[in-house]
């Protein structure tokens, strides 16, 4: 069975005017299995966002030759050796993105934003003119109901709160039929209650539909509350990849020194247990 995501010796170097180049991701190899849920943690600037963008083929890895810099999703090549793969569109069809920036089109309705998830499957012409059929609309509405915001379907996306917008992005990934969801700091800048709802929704979706999930998180407390496997990055490298149960304050200080502090929530913000519902009879909404 092909891995949901496979990275082979992937690096990304950013040039800076007058200064030294910065290696944001340094020779990372990792495998995420189908249906697996993984939290990606690390202090600010450790390379989490860059890694997620590389995985989605939104940015190109360094060209180093020798089969390095290869990214595959479900066995389909996304990029290799600093070039996007010819089959990248097919690979992306399986990948849902839940990103804070460029997530939604604020002036379009919530419903239309979710319908964008269908675009991978319908003709470009029909998509351009927004000609979605009744079946597609029903599917999109069902996905919005699934993430608990069907009542906002007709509103413009920008009228929704940050947490609601993240749930629209999750509904879009469901409609898309994504088998892997990459979420880049989906709860950054959300209040604790909204953050919990977004995390609950992501994990419920993953459990119910067997969707692999990679979530970058600033706060380790969410990583340990919601995930079995944690990948920790520092200076562009993977410094830990293992069970969440190993992560505690002492271990984080070993990994990050003083910057461990920014990863640990003050106790008044302790993360409540996940409210993850399981519907064994659920059918994919797509
Ligand atoms: N487009 C870019 N050009 C130049 N440098 C960049 C670019 N994007 C990221 N970097 C640098 O690469 C490093 C890794 O950044 P990245 O955003 O991946 O880290 P992060 O772990 O996601 O951080 P945060 O938690 O603050 O989002 C940082 O030093 C950052 O300044």
UniProtKB/TrEMBL annotation:
Coiled coil: none annotated. Residues 5-260 form the ABC transporter domain. Keywords: ATP-binding, Cell membrane, Membrane, Nucleotide-binding, Translocase, Transport. GO terms for molecular function: ABC-type phosphonate transporter activity; ATP binding; ATP hydrolysis activity. One of its GO terms (cellular component) is membrane. The keyword Transport applies. InterPro entries: AAA+_ATPase, ABC_transporter-like_ATP-bd, ABC_transporter-like_CS, ABC_transpr_PhnC, MetN_ABC_transporter-like, P-loop_NTPase. The keyword Translocase applies. Belongs to the ABC transporter superfamily. This is Phosphonate ABC transporter ATP-binding protein. It comes from Ancylobacter pratisalsi.
């Amino acid at each position: 069975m092909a891995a949901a995501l496979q990275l082979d010796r992937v690096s990304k170097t950013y040039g800076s005017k007058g200064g030294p180049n910065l290696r944001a991701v340094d020779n990372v190899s990792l495998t995420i299995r189908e249906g697996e849920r993984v939290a990606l943690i690390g202090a600010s600037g450790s390379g989490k966002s860059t890694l997620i963008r590389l995985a989605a083929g939104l940015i190109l890895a360094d060209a180093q030759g020798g089969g390095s810099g290869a990214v595959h999703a479900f066995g389909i090549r996304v990029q290799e050796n600093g070039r996007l793969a010819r089959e990248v569109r097919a690979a992306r069809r399986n990948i849902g993105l839940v990103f804070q920036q460029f997530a939604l089109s604020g002036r379009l309705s919530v419903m239309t934003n979710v319908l964008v998830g269908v675009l991978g499957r319908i003709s470009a012409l029909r998509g351009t003119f927004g000609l979605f059929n009744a079946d597609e609309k029903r599917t999109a509405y069902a996905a919005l109901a699934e993430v608990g915001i069907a009542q906002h379907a007709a509103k413009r996306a920008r009228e929704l709160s940050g947490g609601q917008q993240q749930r629209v992005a999750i509904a879009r990934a469901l409609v898309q039929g994504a088998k892997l969801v990459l979420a880049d700091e989906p709860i950054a800048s959300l209040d604790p209650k909204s953050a919990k709802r977004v995390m609950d929704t992501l994990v419920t979706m993953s459990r119910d539909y067997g969707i692999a999930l990679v979530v970058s998180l600033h706060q380790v407390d969410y990583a340990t509350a919601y995930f079995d496997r944690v990948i920790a990055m520092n200076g562009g490298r993977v410094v830990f990849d293992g069970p969440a149960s190993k992560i505690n304050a002492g271990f984080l200080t070993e990994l990050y020194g003083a910057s461990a502090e920014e990863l640990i929530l003050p106790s008044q913000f302790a993360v409540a247990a996940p409210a993850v519902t399981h519907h064994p009879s659920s059918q994919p909404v797509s």
